[in-house]
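**Protein of interest**
===
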Amino acid sequence: MSSASVALPRTPAHAAALSTQVRSLAGRAVLRTLRQPAMIVPSLVFPLFLLAVNSAGLDAATRIPGFPTDSYLTFVLAVPFIQGALFSTMNSGQALAEDIENGFFNRLSLTPMRGSSLIAGQLGGLVVIGLIQATVYLTIGLIAGAGFAAGPLGVPVLFALSILISIGFGGLGMFMAIRTGSGEAVQGTFPLLFILLFFSSISMPRNLIEHEWFRTIATINPVSYLIEGIRSLMVTGWDGEALALAFGIAICLIAFSITIASLSLRNRMVRT
């Protein structure tokens, strides 16, 4: 397939064809994930396990003067949403890398399938998985006693932000898969992304971090603002600044990751 095939459709017929391709590829991505519990179960269980450990072990932090809530569970409930999004990086990238390794990608390149359909289809699958993750995390958190200051109107905002973050990180996974064609390379990026998570305001508000070097890293780390945007809905209710920063960074991450994934896809299709 030539690089021109990734151009946007210009006629209703092209738009309909693109829509059909996206639906087919998105459905395939979702079904493949659901049929492989090893891909989705860790993204649900591991963040909830860390939530339980952290909320129990660090509850004394709520007694620090200036801590924003008396429930550490409420404070840390934002973290599983980011961890789930990081798992999206591995899942989306791993699936695409497998398609490249087993020749499915090469067969697709001989069809009228557009490059934009491939990317949109993979991301469509991420949206479905992201909704499942967000529903499970929020439900378990509320059952366990976490607060949600934003109330019912905050739920769709939480889901929208969570999905945008998943798409942004998922785009990075797709870039690594397309660039390297290796599932091992995709898996290798997972620990690196987790470093960003742990050098953020994951466990403590930035203004209460004692060590200046750590506070500085957390302040320049964009993941901190993604966490704080989700956290604001649970702790303070409606914090316009925190939400604006979180949505803005998530959208920038999507634009960046999808752009580099698209460019890498175009180059790989030319080589194919």
In short: The longest helix spans residues 240-271. The chain has eleven helices and no strands. Residues 95 and 202 are 29 Å apart (CA to CA).
